[in-house]
Amino acid sequence: MRRVIIYIAAVLVLILGFWGVHRLDNTELTKQSRLLVTPEPASPAVESPAEPTPEPTATPTPTPEPTVEPFTTPEPAALKADINPLTGAPAGKDYSLRRPYAVMINNIAVAQPQVGVAGADMIWELMDEGGITRMEALYMDPADIPSIGSIRSARIYNVSVARAYDAILVHAGGSDEALSAIDAFGVSDICSVRGRYVSGTFYRDKSRQTYGVEHSLFAVGKGIVRSAESLGCSATHPDGYATLYGMTFSDTAQTQCTLPAETVAVTYAGGKTTDFIYDSDVGLYAVAQFGDVYADSGETPVLFRNVLILKAWTALQEDGLHLSIRLVGSGDGYFCCGGAYTPIRWYRADEDEPFFFTTETGEPLALGTGRTFVAVQQIGGFTGTTAFYGG
Fold first, then answer.
1. What pLDDT shows up at residue 10?
2. Other beta carbons within 10 Å of 332
3. How much is the pLDDT for 194?
4. What is the pLDDT of residue 72?
5. Residues 6 or more apart in contact with residue 103 via CB below 8 angstroms
6. CA angle 159-352-377, nearest 5°?
């Protein structure tokens, strides 16, 4: 009996000892784990070339939307028949009432190079979920462009941009919110996912499917125009439409810019950066992204007379995935032309009105005659940065 009691006591001692060591180990591991946790870096508070902000993974601290300033929309100006209303340049054809096309373009690194963008009259770049960006290329007449793409889906703010120009939207599906807006507001669209196109409009490039079939869809310019006709999309704006899209152009627009901007770096909240490099020999900005020159088919650099950087309130939606970007109301921004820049203001009365731009003092802003790149920078729930160099 005595031996049994001694044996039981020994077993209890071993168990208690193991438990104590195990508890100590866990406590020490917890302490070490805490030491390894690195605090998140603070978001940059000034316009500077800061380190890229991490991709959004959680709902950010809510930021109140900015107050919208009152703005009187100018009377629509008449457009000369032989002028391209998106560039202010001679067109050689009558664009006085012609509706443009807004084409959704894939813009992740593995989907480069883009195709057909050298023929675009204006390009918008907006942030998308997951920290990536997507481009929306506007064409007054894509008929002579053999291939455009790769084509991707639309978000509600892409629909908003198309509505600002009364454009026909070309896309490969979209978020539920975007598709609902297209249907609810009668937005003309050509869509590969919903069967809104005719044969010969879209095709798959098998050489682009290495990183996923979603990066392989392209559109044919002539097919886009045929689809619009077949679907009954009006080729012209309604009577009285402001066909200048809120823009005026001048060959001396650079005189409005007084601060150096030989290189401009726009970093979106997800960390993606687009650089604009001024070439004084041609008076245009080249674009660089993903460590390479932005070039059509990887061969023809896409150059821009103007760079507009528009600050727009941005927040994560309740689904924790999609973004809201406020493109109606007013906001600050920058205008770059001729290797220099100036702060500006932008205004837009509602979804079916164009954007208007003024200088800081309220004078109408004139763009340089030629192609424009519009970068929409985040403020509010997410914040991007812009840095200027040179001079």
1. 39
2. 16
3. 96
4. 64
5. 120, 136, 137, 138, 139, 142, 148, 151, 170, 171, 219, 224
6. 55
Nearest-5° angle of CA 318, CA 321, CA 323? 75
Question: What is the per-residue DSSP string for 109-176?
Answer: GGGPSPBSGGG-SEEEEEE-GGG-EEEEEEES--TT-S-EE-B--B-HHHHHHHHHTTPEEEES-B-H
For the chain, which domains are there? Answer: 101-389 (3.50.90.10)
Q: Give the strand pairing for 356-359 and 189-191.
A: unpaired
* 240 burial type by CB count under 10 A (0-12 exposed, 13-18 middle, 19+ buried): exposed
Spatial separation of the C-alpha atoms in residues 201 and 227, rounded to whole Å: 7
Q: Are 119 and 101 in contact (CB under 8 A)?
A: no
Give the span between the Cα atoms of 128 and 325, in whole angstroms.
10
DSSP one-letter code for 211: G
| Owner of token pair 């009558």 | 94
Q: How far apart are CA 87 and CA 17, in angstroms?
A: 81
Rounded Cα–Cα distance for residues 88 and 99 (Å): 15
Contact between 267 and 384 (Cβ < 8 Å): yes
**Cβ-count burial of 265 within 10 angstroms (0-12 exposed, 13-18 middle, 19+ buried)?**
middle
Task: Please tell me the predicted confidence (pLDDT) of residue 299.
Answer: 96
- Asked if residue 314 lies in contact with residue 269, where contact means CB atoms within 8 angstroms, the answer is yes
pLDDT score recorded for residue 130: 87
Instruction: Give CA 143 to chain center in angstroms.
Output: 25
Residues in CB range of 157: below 8 A, 6 or more apart:
126, 323, 324, 325, 327, 376
Residues 6+ apart with CB under 8 A from 201: 190, 192, 219, 220, 223, 224, 226, 227
- DSSP-assigned beta bridge partners for residue 300: 296
- What is the pLDDT, as a whole number, of residue 64? 52
The predicted pLDDT at position 16 comes to 36
Of 205, 214, 215, the residue nearest 112 (C-alpha): 215
Which stretches of the chain drop beneath a pLDDT of 50?
1-63
Sheet of 202-204: strands edge to edge?
Answer: 148-149, 217-219, 202-204
